[in-house]
Specification:
alpha+beta; Pdz3 Domain; 6-stranded mixed sheet; 456 residues; 3 domains
Length: 456
């Protein structure tokens, strides 16, 4: 089965002066970039008819414009006009002048971490969580603090530059988080000085060690080595919770995920936290959904590619949890996270809490063009089981519960609090589930032999 990845690769290149006139060699690079963008879309776009758009005619119409461009900005405008004819998200020309803050992910893998997660909320970089036992936790950094500076890089400058580059992209919040966390990373054992504003808006400067990243170093396909972690715990009495940073390292992640559900089959509720999870292997979503869906042949949705389609068909487990299921998402939940959350929502199996997802459900890539800019493009179309295109739209929560600084400073997690409140309404603490649903008895060959019982 084809494995689907959300690949976000940003290369470090040199900035170009805004007003510089193109030399003859520069113009060759602009034309080469035009051809690379056109050919990439022509060979990878899932619909060979381009939705009725004459893609070859677009090439013929715009080629003279790129040949006559006198500045890099004029040439970039031609490229943007070309991909704009598709009227789709996830097709973006990325200016080279933001690459200094979007460091190469390949170089970042294996770097140390401070234990801080961050989101841009109200235009400010705010700490949303501090992992226990990390350098940030030992330094008493608290959720809700504003990050003013990481090393010598002002957070406001990072936000402004990356925000402008992705102003019209649904990936904006995901890229902002990546840029900021990247600035706080460094060689393991080194130190970084970070300036904060605490809950009283007082300046606080902390010198933090770069600790070993959490998780297991995982390798998959052409992706750089990546630390993958998964956490399971009780979010409240008789309410299980599992969260993980990527849909990778399937052996460890799927085993721990299954163990978490199995240990909670008699719980009164379960929570899957997909906030900050940018996706990964699509097939893992089908396996995870099988712990909560009791009917065979149900689907999360369908991925349409140039040479076929892939149905995200769920295979129920012998035992499933059929109590209240909550899924937490935010603007940094993308790709496979959206497929899992959106599919479970469409099937009526889960209630979604948080904020609208990244609307980046498609497998996409970012490549560097000869002119130094980047080009992001999607390679397939995904339609959820409810007939919705997630790309450019995302998964809308049933209950909007976005991050807020006030809640973070007070020690509250708005999305998790809302999910637990809903579970309490459906299954009060004094009325836990009395048993798990056992769907199929497996014979020696793994074949199902019928429904045995459903004890609620």
């Amino acid at each position: 089965m084809r494995k689907l990845l959300l690949i976000l690769l940003c290369a470090t290149v040199c900035a170009r002066a805004a007003s510089a006139l193109l030399s003859a060699e520069d113009r060759k690079q602009e034309v080469a970039s035009f051809e690379q963008v056109w050919n990439t879309v022509n060979s990878s776009f899932w619909d060979p008819t381009f939705g009725g758009l004459n893609w070859r005619a677009v090439h013929g119409e715009l080629l003279p414009k790129i040949e006559q461009a006198t500045t890099h900005e004029e040439a970039r405008a031609v490229l943007e006009e070309m991909i704009g004819r598709l009227h789709l998200t996830h097709f973006e020309i990325i200016s080279s002048d933001v690459s200094s803050d979007l460091d190469d992910l390949t170089a970042r893998r294996g770097l140390g971490e401070t234990g801080i997660d961050v989101r841009v909320i109200g235009g400010k970089a705010l700490v949303t969580s501090v992992e226990d036992g990390t350098p940030a936790a030992r330094a008493s950094v608290r959720p809700g603090w504003e990050i003013v500076r990481a090393g010598d890089a002002p957070a406001a400058r990072i936000i402004a530059k990356a925000g402008r580059a992705y102003e019209h992209s649904t990936l904006r919040e995901l890229i902002l988080r990546e840029a900021l966390t990247g600035r706080m990373s460094g060689p393991i054992g080194s130190q970084i000085e970070i300036e904060f504003r605490d809950g009283a808006d007082r300046p606080v400067v902390k010198t933090l060690d770069e600790g070993r990243p959490n998780g297991v170093l995982s390798r998959f396909g052409y992706l750089p080595p990546t630390y993958v972690w998964i956490e399971r715990r009780m979010a409240a009495p008789q309410v299980g919770l599992v969260r993980f940073n990527m849909f990778l390292d399937p052996v460890n992640v799927m085993r721990t995920f299954g163990d978490a559900v199995t240990a909670c089959l008699n719980c009164r509720g379960f929570v899957i936290d997909l906030r900050g999870n940018p996706g990964g292997i699509g097939a893992m979503a089908m396996g995870m959904a099988g712990w909560f869906v009791d009917k065979p042949d149900e689907r999360l949705g369908t991925l349409y590619m140039r040479n076929g389609k892939l149905n995200f068909t769920i295979n129920p487990r012998p035992q499933v949890f059929d109590g209240p299921l909550a899924v937490l998402v935010d603007e940094t939940s993308a790709s496979t996270s959206e497929i899992l959350a959106g599919g479970l929502k469409d099937l009526g199996r889960a209630r979604i809490f948080g904020s609208r997802t990244a609307a980046a459900a498609l497998p996409s890539a970012i490549i560097m063009l000869p002119n130094g800019d980047g080009f992001q493009y999607a390679m397939a179309d995904y339609i959820s089981e409810g007939g919705k295109r997630l790309e450019g739209i995302g998964v809308t929560p049933d209950v909007e519960a976005p991050w807020t600084r006030e809640a973070l400073l007070a020690g509250h997690d708005t999305a998790l609090d809302a999910a637990l409140q809903w579970i309490d309404t459906v299954r009060p603490a004094d009325k836990p589930l009395t048993g798990a649903r056992l769907l199929h008895k497996q014979d020696a060959q793994g074949a199902g032999s019928g429904l045995l019982y459903a004890n609620h």
